[in-house]
Amino acid sequence: MTELRVVTVKLAEELYQEIALRIPEGDRSTFIRDAIAEKLQTTPKPDKLLALEQRMVQLEEQFGQIKKYLIELEILTFQHDKINPYQYAQDDVDRKIIEYLLNYKSATTPEIAEYLKTNRWMVLNRLQRIEKNSKKQAGKSIIKYYAGERSGKKKAWWLDETLIHE
Hints:
- The protein is mainly alpha-helical.
- It has helices spanning 13-22, 28-42, 46-72, 92-104, 109-116, 120-138; strands spanning 106-107, 143-150, 153-159.
- The chain starts with 12 loop residues before the first helix and ends in a 7-residue tail after the last strand.
C-alpha cells in the first residue's frame, strides 16, 4: 500500500450521523477512502477531456478547410447549399443577434445592445465570434463589419444575404 496522507473533511451533521450509524468506528477511514476512490473512477480525467476538446477543434477546422476547398473548386456552391445562420449561434444571445440581423439586414453594435438590453462590448464579442466561426467553418463569413456608410448606416454589421437561407 502507498503512503497515506491525512485529509480533513467537513461533513453535514446528518451525513456524519449516517456514517456513524452504518459504519463501525475502526472501519470509517477505509470506507471513506474507498468511497473517494470509487467516485474518482467515475470522474473523467481532465487530461482526457482537454485532449478530446482539442481534437474536436482540430476536426472542425479540418472540416472547414475541406468545405473551403470544395467551394473554391465550385463543387459545393452557396447557391445550392445556403447556410443556416443559426448554426453559428451558441446560445440565446447569439440567436437573438442573428434574428435581429435577419430582420433588419444590418445593425450597429449599440442598436443590437439596446435591443438585447446589454452592453455593446458583449455584443461586439459575440458578433466577432460569429463572424470568425462562420468564416472558419463555411469559408465565408455570414456577417461583415463595414466601417463606412452604406444604406444610411455607418459602422454597421451587415448580413451577407447571398449566403443565408431563411
